[in-house]
Amino acid sequence: MSRLGALAPRAKPAGAATSTAVAFDRAAARLGGRTIWSDVSLTVAEGDFVAVLGPNGAGKSTLINAILGLLPLAAGTASVLGRPPGDSKGLIGYLPQRRSFDTGTRIRGVDLVRLGLDGARWGVPLPGLPSHKRDAARVGEVIELVGAIGYARQPIGELSGGEQQRLLIAQALVRRPKLLLLDEPLDSLDLPNQAAVAALVRRICEEEYVAVLLVAHDINPILGYLDRVVYLAGGNAIEGAPQEVITSETLTRLYGAPIEVLRASDGRLVVVGQPEAPFVHGDRHG
Amino acid sequence: MFAHEFMRHALIAGSFVGLACGLVGYFVVLRAQVFAGDALSHVAFTGALAAAVLGLNILAGLFAATILGGIIMGILGDKARADDVTIGSLFAWTLGLGVLFLTIFTTQDSAGNGTAGVRVLFGSIFGLSTTDVRNAVVLAVLAGALLLAIARPLLFASLDTAVAAAQGVPVRALGLVFLALLGLVSAQATQAVGALLLLGLLAAPAGAAHRLTTRPYLGLALSALFSVGSIWIGLTLSYVFPTLPPSSMIIAAAVGVYVLALATTAARDPSAFWLRQANGNVA
């Protein structure tokens, strides 16, 4: 399916080359013999904030796994930060779905963020080394960036969902990634926290010049912050600007079933008529 | 008390075994694998007695069984956590097998040497030869060094499996190595405090460390310190009061440290403490 339109890339830092963070060309993913999606083509530019939307079971997390290189494509090609998926681990920050810590987890938030930086290294950190100081400074920086200074030294298990989520975003950011994959980071948060985290992600996009793919259930809390959306449904995907994709015509074509997009008086979008998941995939394309 | 060779041997071997137990124990508690430690204590008992029945070196049987047991649990992987009933039955069967070996061993041995079973169950730290001590020190240093070498990625994998895996940390392999290490340390602890009580030496000092600090590497050090301290206190008590067996004194000291840690956190912030208890916090 063809992409709808293309937005001009946002202002970027001087000297940075324009490049693509993620490019899929007619890609397909299969899980346990079932085709999750196929013929998916999409492009995410550096510094873009992109939402991945769609009903349960449409393959949103599968898309993230394909970008991470954890799931090989069944067809088509993919390039992540100019390399095959899985070859740029150090440049990707990843926040998995529904991660919360047991109240018994007596480890400080700051240590968890720190592990995002040095957790893959062997041994134990030695306080005397110059790298130790540099790492600590970077950890302090990202904790300040996400606004978690006030509680970063408390045990992670005793923090609220929103506080944990901010620290986990800090952890995903600590290695200065070029691409941030956030799988339903707003899921367990109340509405004010959802908006605050969305605003934070927008700010990170601009300040750190990171491309962000954020998997979400509901577009409304993030609508005002987005550059583009990828909408997965019916075994296929459409990518474009939110106002182009979230329309009755486009979604009807994607689902292959009548869909109506209503705009409430406060600007919220309501999608009506979505078939219930699990969805039968197969010869629904086009 | 340093005049007696058996006491010197016990203190030297005990210190190193305690060090290894404390380091490994910190991760046993963090990874909620106390059950695995318990299972390995059954394996330790059976392995040692199987070796005795077959006329092999009891220590060799002990180490082979616990390390193998750890690796098998590692390969079973997540199933070991998911299917408690299967694993529980499997290890009850292992313990039953141990009892069988004990019976065979005591009836076939004309000298009526049934003390092997008792020694495996309750430890024999006051009966270590120079060779035993040397082996204990070498193995404990090896286990401790290996644990420190994998400590940081293991911490990452324990707290945050998915992200660690996405960053290329070999999560499965680390879990396997850790359980093999736990097997090795369990066998060592069996010598010091016996199969029945080794769980206390693995869990109590580590639990106290988790209570007292939220800094992971400090916690690791504290856990080792508490474990070594428990061994010293236990051995001293047992020396001063010869009727008290060393193994039970060591465990009493370890549990005492844990209770003190509980009391300290409760005194520091009583409301938070009771709130945590109500929330079912076990660490």
Q: Would you give an account of this structure?
A:
By secondary structure, chain A is an alpha/beta fold. Chain A is built from seven helices and eleven strands. In chain A, the strands form three sheets. Chain A has a six-stranded mixed sheet, with helices on both faces. Chain A is globular, with a radius of gyration of 19 Å. The N terminus and C terminus of chain A are likely disordered. Chain B is mainly alpha-helical and 283 residues long. Chain B has a single domain, classed as ABC transporter involved in vitamin B12 uptake, BtuC, CATH 1.10.3470. At the A-B interface, strand 5 and helix 2 of A face helix 7, helix 8 and helix 11 of B.
Helix/strand class of chain A: alpha/beta
* CATH homologous superfamily identity of chain B: ABC transporter involved in vitamin B12 uptake, BtuC
How would you state the average pLDDT of chain A, rounded? 85
**Helix content, binned percent of chain A:** 25-40%
Looking at the structure, the CATH topology of chain B is ABC transporter involved in vitamin B12 uptake, BtuC
**Residue share in helices of chain B?**
over 70%
Label the overall shape of chain A: globular
Computed structural class of chain B: mainly alpha
Q: Provide the gyration radius of chain A in Å.
A: 19 Å
Q: State the helix count of chain A.
A: 7
β content of chain A, as a range?
Answer: 15-25%
How many separate domains make up the residues of chain B?
Answer: 1
Please describe the biggest sheet of chain A, giving its number of strands, its sense, and whether it closes into a barrel.
6 strands, mixed
CATH architecture of chain B: Orthogonal Bundle
Number of helices of chain B: 13
In CATH's first tier, which class of chain B applies? Mainly Alpha
Catalogue the unreliable spans of chain A.
1-12, 277-286
Succession of helices and strands of chain A: EEEHEEHHHEHEEEHHEE
Distance between the termini of chain B: 36 Å
Largest sheet of chain B: none
The protein's oligomeric status is: heterodimer
